[in-house]
Design brief:
Blueprint (H helix, E strand, L loop, with lengths): L2 H22 L10 H6 L10 H9 L11 E6 L6 H14 L4 E6 L4 H30 L6 H8 L1 H20 L4 E5 L2 E5 H4 L5 H11 L1 H51 L1
Parallel strand pairs: 1-2
Antiparallel strand pairs: 1-3, 3-4
Helix pairs in contact: 1-5, 4-9, 5-7
Length: 264
């Protein structure tokens, strides 16, 4: 095989080996940081630094608000380009319910689709290796190269590009779940898999608002206050009317008495 064939065959093998190493490599252990290291680190703030107050204010979580203590999990399909929609919904919820905690997570596909997506690179490399070195592979298994092998080998570069593109499309399809699931405190609020649509911002705001008890308390407390003001204003008006009536009667009685005195 010439150098071009070796490069075209070695590149998919290298990518496949890197995927396998990344898949089965253990995660590096997290190095614990002591208080002394965090205080004396390069990014530590000095006591007189004015930016230390701003950084501490940004680091402290916002716990005040109607949404404090509520956690919303937005589980979406990362390979379906749903991240922008999830970020928009997160900003909307944080603005509507201050103090709410919104978590963005990837919703993985089922296990059979994940297993098939891992097998696609193996099939790609196997098809390309067979296309490039089929003359040595088929005789080792006691087989004669089929006619379709020679027809594909006649246009080997186009065939290899088609195999690579089709394999990438199949892998992206198998890795996609098409999900946009919304959970509020562990309870499913909206499911795109069952509804076959995205929730609107107003709909999601109402669904989350119904799960937050503080929002109901604030609305319920506002109604009796308005009723109390109306009820308090009515007796005041009645009292003013009742107090004005005796005054007019007294004046009329005085005028009648004066008239009788004059006649006498």
């Amino acid at each position: 095989m010439d150098r071009v064939q070796l490069v075209l065959l070695g590149l998919p093998i290298l990518l496949f080996c890197s995927d396998v190493v990344t898949l089965f490599a253990p995660l590096p252990p997290a190095t614990p940081q002591t208080d002394n290291q965090s205080r004396t680190g390069p990014n530590a703030f000095q006591p007189g630094d004015p930016s230390a107050a701003d950084a501490s204010a940004q680091a402290e979580p916002q716990v005040d608000g109607p949404g404090s203590g509520t956690t919303v999990d937005l589980k979406f399909c990362a390979s379906c380009s749903y991240r922008g929609t999830a970020m928009t919904m997160k900003r909307m919820l944080e603005t509507s319910f201050p103090g709410i905690h919104v978590v963005l997570e990837n919703y993985p596909p089922p296990f059979p689709k994940r297993a098939l997506s891992k097998a696609v690179p193996i099939l790609q490399v196997g098809a390309m290796a067979t296309l490039m070195a089929g003359d040595q592979i088929f005789p080792r298994f006691g087989m004669v190269p089929p006619p379709w092998y020679y027809s594909l080998r006649a246009n080997r570069f186009g065939t290899m590009a088609s195999i690579w593109l089709f394999g990438n499309f199949a892998q992206s399809f198998l890795q996609s779940s098409g999900a946009f699931e919304v959970y509020c405190n562990g309870q499913l609020v909206f499911s795109k898999l069952s509804e076959q649509r995205f929730p609107s911002e107003l709909e999601l705001q109402q669904l989350i608002g119904n799960r937050i008890p503080d929002s109901h308390d604030t609305t319920d407390n506002n109604i009796p206050d308005s009723q109390d003001t109306i009820d308090n204003s009515i007796p005041d008006s009645q009292d003013t009317i009742d107090t004005n009536i005796p005054d007019s009667q007294v004046e009329e009685n005085l005028e009648k008495d004066l008239a009788l005195d004059v006649e006498l």
